[in-house]
Predict the structure.
Amino acid sequence: MGAPDPRQPDPRRPDPRRPDPRRPDPRQPAPRQPARSRRAAERKGDVRERAILDTCEALLASKGYEAMTVGDVAQGAGITRGALYFYFGSKQEVVTALVARTVEHLWERSRATAQADEPRQAVAAAMRRTVELWNDHGLVMRTAIDLSLTVPEIGELWDRTADLFIAAITAVLERAGVQPGGRPDQASALARALCWMIERTFYHASQESREKLREASSTCEHIWLTTAGLPT
């Protein structure tokens, strides 16, 4: 065997003119993160945010809004204060997000009521769903009402929710034969009064018991049906 010819490339050494497959080519774009990994990261963030909001709701029941702290929320969610601030900038932002999550359920129920065909069934379904929501999230609802005058974001959410409910009630009244319009005896004005009556009635009943909520529902349903000119 003779010495290697210096004019021929040594097969044991990489040819500098050819890209090394073990090294990334700087002329090519970096490989994208696998979609599954991105989705996993998003899911992890969703789970953590849900834990924060669930903890906030539990603390509203055990401590109340004023006594609850960011540290309490972080500890209950199993994260550090710094990690919590990655999602929310303050206790007020956490509560606002919790209210937003709750009113999404309200909006769904409002749309379902507006789409129902038979007015009596629509009224019964609306009151049944309202009882369910106040049973499950009454404390959040009361907190939203209490803070709606001092926290603009919560006030805006609550006003939008009321507007959707008023629109749904208006639709039911009009299907029952109440004249459309904004005069005191017409559907829009009557719907607005019914909406705020239901809110305050449930607000107070939810502080007492589930039985009081059911009684409040029966009373509000009776008034709604009477206003619509339907038999009770």
Notes: Confidence is low (pLDDT under 50) at residues 1-12, 19-42. Residues 119-147 form the longest helix (29 residues). The chain is about 70% helix and 0% strand. The CA atoms of residues 34 and 45 lie 17 Å apart.
